[in-house]
Amino acid sequence: MKSRCANLAEVFSSIQGEGVHIGRRQVFVRFIGCNLACEYCDTHLLDAAQPCRLESTPGRGDFHHLANPVPLHHLTDLLVRWQGGWPGVHHSISLTGGEPLLQVPLLQEWIAALREFLPVHLETNGVLATALATVVRDIDFVSMDIKLPSTTGEETLWDHHAEFLSVAAGTDLSVKVVVNASTRHWEVVRAAELTAAVSPSIPFIIQPETAEDLSVRIGATGLIELQELAAGILRDVRIIPQTHRFIGLL
């Protein structure tokens, strides 16, 4: 049977700059398309009319282009070459976006093939619980966002996040909230409480929004106050910026 093709923005090797796997080398597979329109998003202009950028040598930035949609064999051929030429370099494959869960049932086929090479790490906006349920047993790590109204412009996602957390509960799960100077204390408290309702041990990442000029859009005292509030509810609360941007990596 012919494999399904995916609309991809890029495939490349880099260091994970966010969340609990910060500093680990991953193969990033960036999907096109999202069901949300967060105000801070830096990938919302991607569309399937654009070609996919595929890195030839891991981490070297020597991209070539493929027309979308991209067949699975282009990824598996790349992984065979990278795993043979650079063994032990990569920790996992990060499915990111956009929102990868928009491309179910394609993911059911692709994840099975990708896991033959490396564990699979899903980065998701954390609202598509039904889609997650179809693939959750085959995903090794889930990094989900809880979208705060003040930073995203999205207002009605709390119930969606609660449902998503319940589906993701059996995975190696972490939660991230993006914050800035307009973030209100109650938003972080509510996000922490939603997370704690599943397990108070889930890592909870407070990520300051980073501007185009690499300035951070919230002060140090504001970050400390938000960490204190969340730490009163959860056991593992961390402040982690987008470190890859500060060292010039994708």
Compact description:
By secondary structure, this protein is α/β, with parallel strands linked by helices. The chain is built from 8 helices and 12 strands.
Secondary structure tally: strands: 12
Helix vs. strand class: alpha/beta
Unreliable sequence segments: none
The rounded distance between the terminal residues' Cα atoms is: 35 Å
What is the number of domains? 1
What is the global morphology?
Answer: globular
Average of per-residue pLDDT values: 93
Largest sheet: 10 strands, mixed
CATH class: Alpha Beta
One letter per element, helices H and strands E, the order comes to EEEEEEHEHEHEHHEHEHEH
Write up what this structure looks like.
This protein is α/β, with parallel strands linked by helices. The chain has a single domain, classed as Aldolase class I (TIM Barrel). The chain has helices at 72-85, 106-114, 129-135, 149-152, 158-168, 185-198, 220-231, 243-246; strands at 5-6, 8-15, 25-31, 52-55, 63-66, 70-71, 92-96, 120-124, 141-145, 172-179, 204-208, 237-239. Helix 2 (106-114) links the parallel strand 7 and strand 8 (120-124). Helix 5 packs parallel to helix 6 (185-198) and helix 6 (185-198) packs parallel to helix 7 (220-231). The longest helix has 14 residues, at 72-85. The two termini are 35 Å apart.
